[in-house]
Structure formats: structure tokens, C-alpha cells
């Protein structure tokens, strides 16, 4: 049973954004502090990656664990109400993500997915970005 009214739940859900999320801002801050330069949300690329590092032909997606179903993550809890609706929605998100990654790879781009829960450790994010951009 939901503890808020359906109107309030609608307001909460409407407030969830796809761009400039807190995890994305953390990754951007880390990348910038490392001296890496990037473009945001390039709409000419499949899936409109959150960060694009043209110099390394690297596309980075910062995925929310709940919406993109980070396997094994506690943040990817299954909603109890309307399970069929949520199952279809999550499956569509996963298919769309997989398609965008496959298309980018086919175009010669490397793809890195950073999960929301991983952004809690900026040192790990820096390590991942360093490895993806310089190979060290």
C-alpha cells in the first residue's frame, strides 16, 4: 500500500528527470576535475549518451539503478503495485539501453555504463574514467 496519495505520487514521479541528475552531476564533476573534456547528451548519437568524450570515442551512460535495473543492487527494488506494468516498463528500458549500446559499438564507439550506486564513491568513478580514457 502506498503511503502517499495518488496525486502526490504523480507529483513525485513527474519530478524525476532524465538529465542533470545527481549521479550524472557527480560523474561530470569527477571528469572535469580530472581535466577530461566532454560533451553532454549528444542527440546525434544513439541513446543520447550522458557524457561523450570525442577524443577517445567514448560514450558514458549514467544509469539509475531503479529505472535501468542494476542487477543485484538494493536500489533496483521491484514495486509491489501493478507488477505487470512495471515489468513491461523495465523490460522496454533494458531493450532500449541494449539497442543504444549495440548501435554505438557498431559505429566504433566504446561505451561505459556507470550505475547510480557506483557514484557514491567518486574515487571509483575517477578510476573507471581514467581506465576508459587512458587505459591506465
Overview of the molecule:
This protein is of the alpha+beta class. The chain has a single domain, classed as 3-Layer(aba) Sandwich (Endonuclease, Chain A). It has 5 helices and 4 strands; from the N terminus they run H-H-E-E-E-H-H-E-H. The chain has helices at residues 6-14, 22-33, 65-68, 83-106, 122-134, and strands at 39-40, 51-53, 58-63, 110-115. Strands 1-2-3-4 form a 4-stranded mixed β-sheet, with helices on both faces. A hairpin with a 4-residue loop joins strand 2 (51-53) and strand 3 (58-63). Helix 2 crosses helix 5. The longest helix is centred in the last third of the chain and has 24 residues, at 83-106. The radius of gyration is 16 Å and the shape is globular. The model has no long low-confidence stretch (mean pLDDT 91). One of its GO terms (molecular function) is endonuclease activity. Its EC number is 3.1.-.-. It is an enzyme of class 3 (hydrolase).
